[in-house]
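Suppose a classmate hands you a notebook page containing two proteins, each written out with its sequence and a corresponding row of structure tokens. How would you begin to make sense of it? This section walks through that situation. The first entry is reproduced here exactly as it would appear on such a page.
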Amino acid sequence: MKFGLMFAHQVPPESGIASSETYDDMLRCLPRAEELGYVSAFQCSHHVQRDSFCPGPLVAMAGAAAVTERMRIGTAVLLVPLYAPLKLAEDVAVLDNLSGGRFVFGVAPGYVSQEFAAHGVPRDERVGRFEEALDLMILAWSGEPFSFEGRYYRVAEGQVTPKPVQSPHPPIWYGVSAPGSLRRAAARRCVQIMSPRHGLAELEAHFQPYEAAAAEAGWEIPERPIIRQVFVAPTMAEAEEKAAPAVNYLYRVLYGAASAAGDRVLRRDDGSVIDDVGKVAFETFKDRYIIGDPDFALRRIEDYRKAVSPSEMICWMHMPGIPGADAMASVELFASEVMPHVR
């Protein structure tokens, strides 16, 4: 199994951390992480959030490309319906050139109502816009003159240059969980990247329609990446002291709030649905994040290996409110005490 890193750049209001610090932390971390054997760096994103959750993932990954040489860089995920697809195709092509062909285009239709309202995009059109935008972008990445006439988007005459370095285009990873979306991901022969908001049983359930659709299409899935919130320290107590407030915050203000608003269900480890953010606590989702000492991390990683056979675990260590020095200590300890022992 390979390992990568995830960044979000969230700053809880009470943390006292400046937004600029989080970007500095990432740029300082990545060259060292590459030396330590991490193979990727991904940027997640949301929009119109009060805590500076990164709204510009392509810009952030351009910075990541500039300070690394071998790591894949990517979005996990970019909310496609909130973008003009031709402009997005151009920006992705430039980033693939800037990185020397190291870019992974992780995408999703999105689900948070306030993001769609703020951008003037009808939420109920998100899946249709998402799929049509991908059709347009894939056509544009040929580098040849083209036109496009769809339900949501129209290009009378266009051409995208430079072409992406990767042929026919950067890999597209779907960050989705609905059965229909999973089947569409397989039909496009796109890798599915599994969200950290889902527990292990949910991940197993999500792989089933995806794998079935891939088999029906005669396509062998090349990668099985998953994202997990990860933080390691010399002792369980220290890891939980430093990271529990971060996951508490994340599951309360984003995942829990969206579930309580009816945007997207968040289930506890016992399968029940969160309908009140006041019921979110560290213990509520403890089985899905990996927070503890190195031995605990190894045991939990083995659980994931047996259940869903991930090819890569993208570790979200720079979580909201965790100082960069503490996140970096986790990056170092994980590389020295966990990664060498994972089959």
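The notebook's second entry, a different protein, reads as follows.
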Amino acid sequence: MTAAITGWAHTPFGRHADETVESLITKATRDALTHAGLEAGDIDEVYLGHFNAGFSAQDFTASLVYQADDAFRFKPATRVENACATGSAAVQQGVKTIEAGRARHVLVVGVEQMTTTPGPEIGANLLKASYLVEDGETPAGFAGVFGKIADAYFQRHGDQSDALAAIAAKNHKNGVSNPYAQMRKDFGFEFCRQESEKNPFVAGPLKRTDCSLVSDGAAAIVLSDVQSALQMPRAVAFRGMGHAQDFLPMSKRDILKFDGCTAAWQQALARAGLTIDDLSFVETHDCFTIAELIEYEAMGLAKEGQGAEVAMSGETAMDGRLPVNPSGGLKAKGHPIGATGVSMHALTAMQLCGEAPEGMQVRDATLGGIFNMGGAAVANYTSVLERIK
């Protein structure tokens, strides 16, 4: 263990027309420093996760963090991008900087503002996270890409509509207790299962309740070397990390297996000296419910094609053997691309410190797992976190 989370901040996710990328960054930065008990001058390096891809006219954004405090001036700052895993990519860069002995304290901020972009442009921007040579003309944008994945999964393993509805209902129920979530409403299984005017099909077998939300928001964490962290109010250490990058074209792999997800989990768990059964809970990348279903299999909770059994059994519910997405996941919380991975780390640290909001806190949580995915299982990042103070 070479680095630990010692502070965090999280804006509410949702539609924030009165905010800008700059204001969201500034709020998260100031709040994270306050939570860690540090000042801007104590930070040695900054990483900003910001996907953008056309959402913001301001495309050169690393130094916007310095709008929060003039004392940041002349410190190194770098923007990191890796599609929907942008936030975790920024986090891992920060950890590596500390591991290399180049910094004692690193600030990592993730941000995106998506809702001020017109609908058709949102779809076009998100589709840039696919292989455009093959998928650039996909109807319904990135939802269409995962609609094709869901269709193929149904053809190979049978109709999984009940399982997808169970995942959606679980995550929406969890999101009710998350004050940072964009949608805090328990829709229930029947609403998520049935097509209706309020829950129409979007792409393939995916309905509106199967798709994560377009969102604005920011999250930030302070990373510190372990020696420094143990002198601070709280410390949540990285017990293991993984990063497995796969081919961009889906045609070069079996897209129904999420092999990169499996490889990333194997890396993190091996480095942590753990198995998936040792974890207290997992925050996983449910950009679409079919993704969470396949991730059950990729992380080892179920055999190939049997993820539905996990989804339907209640095993991943808040009171189940391994709660998955106690925050409500991307499905309820929202998915501001660059902020998502940082949000996952902030909320996991919150759980492990016993500081999660009432109703969202996982009982006796000691080890938290995170999986953040960019593209269709292309950029795969995992973390295993453990509180050490």
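A careful reader of the second entry would note: The longest helix spans residues 141-157.
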